[in-house]
Design brief:
Largest sheet: none
Low-confidence stretches: none
Strand content: under 5%
Number of strands: 0
Mean pLDDT: 92
Distance between the termini: 29 Å
Structural class: mainly alpha
Order of helices and strands: HHH
Helix content: 55-70%
Shape: globular
Number of domains: 1
Length: about 70
């Protein structure tokens, strides 16, 4: 389980990375969130690195989700 500050960081990164993605696109947002959570669970907490991980996840999201 993540601590409060890390969870807030992940939410902020998700919102920034997905700012042009509609909140209705839950599949895409869930994919990006999953990758961010995986990285944070592995110890990654640097905002710039998390943003890159999120952008990479957004690019690799299946097109059927977009």
């Amino acid at each position: 389980m993540l601590d409060g500050p890390t969870a807030a960081l992940l939410r902020a990164v998700l919102d920034e990375v997905c700012e042009e993605i509609s909140r209705d696109e839950t599949g895409v947002r869930a994919h990006v969130a999953s990758k961010l959570l995986e990285a944070a669970s592995g110890g990654e907490t640097m905002p710039d690195r998390l943003k890159q991980i999120g952008r990479d996840a957004l690019r690799e999201a299946p097109t059927m989700w977009r």
